[in-house]
Amino acid sequence: MIGIVIVSHSKQLALGVRELAAQMVQGQVPIAVAAGIEDPENPLGTDPIQVYEAIASVFSDDGVLVLMDLGSALLSAEMAIEFLPEAQQQKVYLCEAPLVEGAIAAVVAAAAGRDIHQVMAEARGALLAKATQLGVSPLSVVSHNTPTTNGESPTPEIRLIVSNRLGLHARPAAQFVATAARFQSQILVQNLTRNTELVRGDSINQVTTLGVRQGHELVITATGSDADEALAALQALFANNFGEDNVALNSPPAFHHKVTPATHGELLGIAASAGVAIAPIVHYQPTHISIREYHVDDPEPEWQRVQAAIHTARQEIQAVFSQASIQIGDAEAAIFDAQLLFLEDPVLLEAAKERILEHHLNAEAAWQAVVDEVATSYHTLEDSYLQERVDDVVDVGQRVLRLLAGNAAAKVHLDEPAILVATDLTPSDTAGLDPTKVLGICTTSGSATSHSAIIARTLGIPAVLGVDAQVLHLADGTVMALDGESGRAWVEPELHILDLLSAKQSAWQTAQQEARATAHQPAITRDRRQVSVFANIGSISDVQVAVASGAQGVGLLRTEFLYLDRTSAPTEEEQLEVYQAIAQVLDNRPLIIRTLDVGGDKPLPYLRVGLREANPFLGSRGIRFCLDHLDLFKTQLRAILRASVGHQIKIMLPMIATVTEVRAAKTILGEVQRELNQAGIPFDAAMKVGIMVEVPSAVAIADQLAAEVDFFSIGTNDLSQYVMASDRTNPRVANLVDALHPAVLRMVQQTIQAANAAGISVGLCGELAADTLATPILLGLGLDELSVNPQSIPGVKQAIARLSIVECEAIVASALQQDSAVHVRELISTSVTPPA
Fold first, then answer.
1. Which helix (DSSP H) or strand (DSSP E) does residue 523 occupy?
2. Distance between CA 788 and CA 541 in Å, rounded?
């Protein structure tokens, strides 16, 4: 495979070009970077040794293409070649092509298997597409030989209407060219809508010059021995929208770049929370806190002011957490756990204290300085997911600053329902919104993975983020329509837009009403198989919502909420009171209590573990943590056992990886039972014990584990990331963590088969259970119960009622043979038969 080297004065520029080029070919082509110099004061420059090392790292007998920006980059590249052995020097080519466009054209050509001279020609011609689009004639562009025809259309041919939102933009064009290059036949393409000439389908530059946009009609011809196969493969790309979501109003792409609006009044942004809103706008501007820095003679009162503000901030955040737990559930409300931990960060507190006590700074200035330092450290991280966490730092930092300044908390007050327009919203702002008044959110910044976006989705408030700043200049009361599924908004929308959106809104509302109407009925398939639908909860308020939503029981009580946001572990009596209260609300419905599952991303601040873990998700978490903290574990087991009297309570152990762990936990449970017997304290001696199956080793020995316990519950959230070896919080690999990947589905099937063979029940409590697209798969695999967040219960029950087990089993048989989660989703979408 040909290697590509990018030489630039700017390291950031080179890394950006490499990332863009790599995405075009999904990392198939080796790309190395030699950019910048190791001088913090003046990092711009090039280093011949760096260039030499970069060439060596991607060297191939097929050749290496070196692209450079300007000036000394060329000199450094020429010098670097001299360091190579003479035989290798002949296979390294310096290319004058433009850096960005040339790199993209080169990697696509290399991925298609072109030789080094063809790759270099493609790179040199990379400006042709841009020049054609702009209507100029660049002198530096190497012209391509455009195929000529004899006036008769070659056969066979296909005609297609392009449905991609942005047409054949860079990524789809790269897929098109890579597919065309796999075949021997000559493939030609013409944009009939723009009446272009025929161009070669295996040239990224020529395909891009066609200027293909959504709705354009193309004719694709192929001449050669495998012409039919080539056209079929290309047609499949278009049928599948090149792996992008459809552009229709009912299922538009989730993310896209901002582009110039195509219609009057249309704003394009980021699709962050699905749904339609049509209403007047109201601007929200948080109160600006202005501070001044000054010297204080007596610093001690200033430090006491900071401590008092932090104490009040902690109480406010805990109140936000409690309210958010009721409104959006504990899983999403846990976002505010991080804010509480931020207030307890000893490094931050010590830095603020030092500024006040040693430098005699006033409290406001000292606090602002340390918060700015933390925010800056987040901004410099390479991980974009972690960069976005700066929103939480700023949110909690501003809260304390507001308290120090004596300002009242800013709140969103709306007299009438409206769409909220703002530069951005903090997680706290968003959590406090009333969905009956805030019908939609439109901001000029933010991302779909931010905590504010997550909260908006959970509240069911449609949101479009990252729109053009012109929206901030609109007058309050201006009518806006937005579609949070497509990431579009319209200012004073035209009638046909309103009609489309109103129809979509009505369809969604009708579906919700139908789901709520049947929520309290059993979930029974069309061929009369009943499936239990339980709730995942994390508080007393959650269980009330669950019962109101039609839950047949609780499949997962996350007990972590009892242990977090406090300075010591909960007592036995505190836990007993909560477990009994939840069981009381359930009124003899099943209640599965999962023992403490901390560690990983959920540390307990008051338990100081001696060794900091480099990989906490692979460290002391779940049952491992409990077995290392027996006092904590036994206290919880006592409380659960005591609460079991007169209720249908079961106990579930998390993160089980070995039979030894199960037996150790059962031994401790036996000890607690004997202690309660000796004390004359009643409990349910027949209480069932189950485990979470969320570690690959548990699947591998599921038959052995099934002999030890009464039930399995499959946790697909962790199982997916462990099976795929991908951190679901890392955006670079998060797309791999899909529970519908056949590798994960086979694990689920193996677990269910082991449970069935042992005669024990098996449920699933991961996020997959709430995805109604996945319902046919889960039923077809043979699960006895699904446990979902309370808000999803009506929709899941409705999905079950539309299916038959026979139909689902057929879908599963085919799904397990697919090669990707994308293909599994396509299969489900095309296989489910609508109800008669």
1. strand 523-524
2. 16
Chain segment 293-343, per-residue pLDDT in tens: 899 999 999 999 999 999 888 888 877 766 665 555 555 565 676 677 678
For 640, the 3-state DSSP assignment is helix
C-alpha distance from residue 451 to each of 388, 440, 542, 819 (Å): 8, 16, 20, 32
- Distance set, CA 182 to CA 145, 202, 230 (Å): 20, 9, 8
Tokens (6 digits) for 424:
């951005």
N-to-C CA span, the chain:
54
Q: What sign for the dihedral angle of Cα 722, 725, 730, 735?
A: negative
State how beta strands 554-558 and 199-200 pair.
unpaired
CA pair distance 222, 211, nearest whole angstrom: 21
Q: Is the pLDDT of residue 137 over 60?
A: no
371-375: average pLDDT: 82
Among the ranges given (142-156, 297-311, 327-341, 732-746), the one the predictor scored with the smallest mean pLDDT:
142-156
Distance CA 189, CA 153 (A): 11
329: left (phi over 0), alpha (psi -120 to 50) or beta: left
Helical residues (DSSP H) of 329-389, grouped into ranges: 330-333, 335-343, 346-357, 363-379, 384-388
Q: Count CA atoms within 13 Å of residue 648 on its CB side.
A: 11
Average pLDDT over residues 502-513: 80
Q: CA 510 to CA 517: how far, in whole Å? A: 11
Return the biggest CA–CA distance within the chain.
99
Secondary structure element (H or E) that encloses residue 95, with its range? strand 92-95
Q: Is the pLDDT at 518 greater than 80, yes or no?
A: no
* Residue range 470-481: mean pLDDT, rounded: 91
For residue 134, what pLDDT is reported? 64
Specify burial of residue 473 (Cβ count, 10 A radius: 0-12, 13-18, 19+).
Answer: exposed
Give the tokens for residue 284.
């929200």
Mark out the alpha helices in 112-203 (DSSP H runs): 116-124, 127-134, 170-180
Measured between alpha carbons, how far is 615 from 54 in angstroms, rounded to an integer?
30
**What pLDDT score does 170 carry?**
56
- Count of C-beta atoms within a 10 Å radius of residue 540: 17
**Distance, CA of 444 to CA of 506 (rounded, Å):** 28
Q: What is each CA distance from 226 to 154, 184, 186, 230, 464, in whole angstroms? A: 14, 7, 10, 6, 45
**For the chain, what is the radius of gyration of the CA atoms?**
30
Strands 157-161, 591-594: pairing kind: unpaired
Nearest to 283 by CA among 154, 438, 513: 438
Tell whether pTM > 0.70.
no
Active-site annotation, residues: 451, 765
The token pair at 498 is 């309103």
Q: Please tell me the distance from the alpha carbon of residue 559 to that of residue 593, in angstroms, as a whole number.
A: 7
Q: Determine the 3-state secondary structure of 505 from DSSP.
A: helix
pLDDT at 582: 95
Q: DSSP assignment of 569-594, as one string?
A: PPPHHHHHHHHHHHHHHHTT--EEEE
Model confidence at 150, pLDDT cuts 50, 70, 90, reads very low
Instruction: Name residues whose C-beta falls within 8 Å of residue 719's C-beta, 6 or more positions apart in sequence.
Output: 693, 694, 695, 696, 699, 739, 744, 747, 748, 766
CB of 367 closer than 8 Å to CB of 393: no
Q: Is the model's pLDDT at 484 over the cut of 50?
A: yes
Q: Are 209 and 129 in contact (CB under 8 A)?
A: yes
Residue 658, both tokens: 């070995």
Q: Supply angle C-alpha 602, 606, 608, rounded to 5.
A: 85
The SS3 of residue 623 is helix
Q: Are 431 and 451 in contact (CB under 8 A)?
A: no
pLDDT at 263: 52
